Amino acid sequence: MDYIDPHIHMVSRITDDYETLARMGCVAVSEPAFWAGFDRGSVDGFRDYFRQLTEVEPRRAATYGIQLYCWLCINAKEAENVSLSRDVIAMIPEFLDHPNVLGIGEIGLNKNTRNESIIFLEHLELAIKYNQSILIHTPHLEDKFQGTQMTLDMLCDDSRINRSRVLVDHVEEHTIGAVLDRGFWAGMTLYPVSKCTPERAADMVEIYGAERLMANSAGDWGPSKPTAVPDLIFELRRRGHNESLIRKLVYDNPIEFFSQSDNFRFQPRNVDHTVDHTVEAPKALPS
C-alpha cells in the first residue's frame, strides 16, 4: 500500500532510510522545521536550515521516488529566545513561495512558558497574513495535557483561524478528543518509547474513526522508527480493518489536508493495481 508520512524529520536520517521508506511504500513525506539537536545562535543559521529543507532534502528524497514537502518556523524549544525568534519569523516569508513549502510549523509549546506562547501567537499572525496552513507541536509527557489545552485555547480565541487548516500533532489518548471536538486535524506520532505505539494508535482509530486523523513517525534525533507508519498499517490489518479505512488514514487524509496549501502538487504513482486473470493458450512447439 502506498502511504504518506505527514511528519518526519529526514534531515536527521541517513540516506539508507529513504531507500527503506520507498521499499515500504512511502511516496511522499512532509518535514516540519524543528530543533537541530542544539540551540542555533543566529538567523543565518535558520536561513541555511530552510535552504536545506527547500533545496537539498527534496533532491535527496527524489532519488528514491519520494516527494518531500516542508514547513517553516522556529520551534518551541528555541522560542525562549524571543529576539532571535522574531528575527527568524521576519525572515520566513523569503521561503514561503518555494514549491515544496506547505505552511508554518511545527509551532506550539514545549514547557508551556510565557515566551513560548508569545512566539506561538506571532507565528499564527504570520500564517494568517500569508494564508498558510499550520502544523502544531504539543509538549511531551507530563506537560502534554496542559500544553495542548493552552494551545487549543489560543487557536480558538482567534476567529481568523481556519480550523480545517490546522494539524495538531503528537496527540495521545487524553488529548485526541479535545483536538477533534474543536474541529482541528489530529496527528498520532508513533514512537518506540514515548508518545504513541502502533497498538495504541490502532485503539484510537477504533474509538474515534479516521476522520481528520493521521499517523506519522517523526523520525527525529531521539529514539524513533522511520517505518512506524507501516507498523500501524500491519497492526490495523491484523485486527481485520478494511483496506479503505487504512488507506484513508495513511494516504487519503494527508492528501486532503495538504491540498489546502497552494504549493501542494502531489503526483500519485502511476501503478496499475488490476490483476489479469486470463490464461494464455500454450504456444505451439517449433516444428
TrEMBL record:
Q: Which UniProt keywords apply?
A: Hydrolase, Metal-binding
Keyword Cell cycle among UniProt keywords:
no
Q: Any keyword Metal-binding?
A: yes
UniProt GO MF annotations: hydrolase activity, acting on ester bonds; metal ion binding
Matching InterPro entries, A to Z?
Metal_Hydrolase, TatD-like, UCP005295
Give the family this protein belongs to, as stated in its UniProt record: Belongs to the metallo-dependent hydrolases superfamily.
PANTHER family in UniProt:
HYDROLASE TATD
Protein known as: TatD related DNase
